[in-house]
Structure formats: structure tokens, C-alpha cells
Amino acid sequence: MSVDLEHIRQVMAEADTLFDERQVEQAIAEVAERINGELADRNPVVFCVMNGGLVFAGKLLPKLGFPLELSYLHATRYRNATSGGELFWKAKPEVSFIDRDVLIIDDILDEGHTLHAIIEFCRHAGARQVHTAVLVDKLHDRKASPDLKADYVGLSCADRYVFGYGMDYKGYWRNAPGIYAVKGL
Hints:
The protein is of the alpha/beta class. Helices cover 26% and strands 29% of the residues. It has four helices and nine strands; from the N terminus they run H-E-H-E-H-E-E-E-H-E-E-E-E. The protein has a six-stranded mixed sheet with strand order 4-3-2-5-6-7. Strands 1-9-8 form a three-stranded antiparallel sheet. The longest helix is centred in the N-terminal third of the chain and has 19 residues, at 21-39. It is globular, with a radius of gyration of 16 Å.
């Protein structure tokens, strides 16, 4: 499948800036401050959800001033409504988190089906407590579970198609230096 790079460039050129780099960096610093205050003595295992959580995790981790174990996971959820949210692991966690606090770092909480399934997986596999940190929480009422909320949220945004700081548009612009919304979406 060929990618129309001109279209990809045009999307960025026309995108609405929701949060510029300074605003995003400030939000990350505030999330780090909260995590430092609450998890510093908990010896957490930290999981970055690939690929979206990579940029947020990379910016957040150096601001955490306590020892932690870091790993990553890569999971997707089949979108078949009759499957009940089955999780497909592209890369399973390789660090034991039995009787440990777990911090999951992801880019965005949209509907949250995959994040919800990862949280449940960690709980069933023996985590003492599961915490979640997302850079962006998308505001709408379509969450996978009515009580699904991230413990640490950097920014909240309208229900639009967003990209940048790890979030992508058709696989591109995860590297964008802010958070943008596709024009008209």
C-alpha cells in the first residue's frame, strides 16, 4: 500500500494546534510531580505501551526521581464486538509484577478498550495495584467502562482526531512537537 506523503504533509499544514510544545512539556512535568509524590516508595514496574506511549514515556521517565524497573508491552485488541475485548499481545511484559505496583504509560485514553484489557491482565497476573498515566484524555462518553479513568492525566482534549507526541495520523506525525487535531475531524 502506497502512502501519499503529500496528503500526510497537508494534514499537518492544515491541522489545528491544540497544545504547543511548551504546554505539553509543562503537563508532563506536572504528571511527573504527582507520580513522584505518590509512587516513589512503591518500587513500581513501569510499562510503556508501544508504540503510542513511547514519546510520553521518554519525556516522563527522566523526571521520575526514584528507582523503578522499566519494560514495555505491545498489545492490540480485536475490534469484533462479540469477542468481549480479547487482547492480542505483540510483545508481552517480560518483567514480573507479582505483588508489585504497576504503572502503565500510554499516549491517549480514547475509548480505552486496549488500556482496560491491559489493566485487567495486570490485575489477574498478580499486580498489587495498577496505575495508569496518559498524556491525553479524550473527553467523551464512549469509554470501554463507565469507571475507566487514568490515574495521571497530562491534558484533556475535545473528541477530535489528534496526533503528535506519540499519537499518529495513519502511522505518521508521532514526532510532531505538539498535539494537533486533523482539520474537520
